[in-house]
Design brief:
Number of strands: 11
Number of helices: 11
Strand content: 15-25%
Oligomer: single chain
Structural class: alpha+beta
Largest sheet: 7 strands, mixed
Strand order of the largest sheet: 2-3-4-10-5-6-7
Distance between the termini: 13 Å
Radius of gyration: 20 Å
Length: about 350
Amino acid sequence: MPAVRIEEIKRFMEESLVAGGAPISEAKAQTDLLLHADIVGHFSHGLNRLELYINDMKIGGCKPSATPVILKESAATAWVDGVDALGATVGNFCMDLAIKKAKECGVGWVSAKRCNHFGMAGYWALKAQREGLIGMAYTNSAPIMTPTRAKNSANGTNPIAMAAPASGGDSLVVDMATTAAAMGKVEMQLRKGEKIPDGWALGPDSKPTTDPQVAFNSGRLMPLGGQEKTSGYKGYALSTMVEVFCSGLSGSNSSYNVPSWSYTQVEPPNLGQCFVVVDPERFAPGFETRIKDCLEHYRNLDPIDPALPVLAPGDKEKKNEKLTRASGTIIYPQGQIDSYNKMAERIGVKPIKVVSSNL
């Protein structure tokens, strides 16, 4: 698979977003969000999502020049109208507000309605963690999860993210969909021409499928845990918890009323999102040391396979980022490069320049 220099894919994303109608400031913010996902190895939420964002702007479902508005607030809480702005625009506005409130009050809780897709949830939690705070981020999404015992989808992937600081610059980072996998993971398997694992999705016959095209077309992802016998009801329950924080608090669409995110979508999704920040210094002293001790304990556990050491949550992404930045390149499937170069021609942007993967 071809490699692309980080600066080149950054250039391409920014120029593409500007061509789609975004102000340069918001194009840069959205690019940082997408690029983070590719750098840490979550390709489903990086370049893979760019064309959908551009499409949203061109058809009017996203208003890239809009500025979010605070509708109601207290010292520690805020209710925000995202006014259909870009995901990074709303995410930065809400998380910055939650951080400010946490620094002043010990906790900041912000829920927003009329949001668009906000990318990788962990990106927003990390924004608080870098300030020495505990960050959490949640969003609902279009209905592609089939609740346990149901034939049809009703919930979104409804991800959960949390990042906590640890001493020595370390951190514990949790970022996961409440489905067995995000739909973007299915899309990446399609791009690579590979099957999906058993337990990710159901076909139109309500039986598990390993065909990514069937899974994509049916839109019936299984909850985290898979079938009922393997505790899939826990993923279903977690997704409903996210729904409470997002649509319940913000007044947005519930997942089952969110339109499917597609190239033909014209209606704004009116997603609900929630950003939470906690200042650990308001609690028992020594927080970062205790989290660091936990991380090291996990990492030092005896592995089943010596070649596969035990990782702490977030370690895989940190390793991927270190390797990616050392190489200076990101590797993408050829089919993805071809697809985006067709888009580049269509919107009048210089195509992606590929380099050898060993550079």
